[in-house]
Hints:
Oligomer: single chain
Low-confidence stretches: none
Transmembrane segments: 81-98, 118-140
Shape: elongated
Keywords: Membrane, Transmembrane, Transmembrane helix
Amino acid sequence: MAKIPITDRYVVGLGCRVSVQQGLTSTKVSWSVAHLPEGGSPRPTGGNKEIGVICPRCRRSFSVRVETATRARVKRLVHRTVGWLLVLSLLALVPMLVQLGGRTVEEGDEQAVDNIGLLFALAAAGVVVGPSLLLSAGIHDGIGKLRLIRADGRKTMWVRGHRLF
């Protein structure tokens, strides 16, 4: 995935679902994506800011949380650093797991079984969480928490038919 630059201006990519086509083995969803506001708006200078956007296709009102540029950059750096540490930890964990897994264990030695279980859990976390954090670091841009604003002014947790791009 391409790295999205984090600048002092933001643009919300709001997608409205146009159609869903289901096949035998896959489902194809078509989206109408609008980039709001035109030309971008300045990011908040301190703290997070909730902004209101209106979907140009269906005219529903939404709120979106926008982070400061500094906070978004720090989150990206932390995700990337922790992701690389987890992936690189596999260089030590996998050989240790292979070595300890090949040993015979005395009957009643629960410490050896606990060590292998812990190493296996850490290796599984490195395999799953490490690459996930690396991918999420590349696409994090500091814009999130899409919420539908109801007629009574309350915000929903789940938004059907819309997503952020």
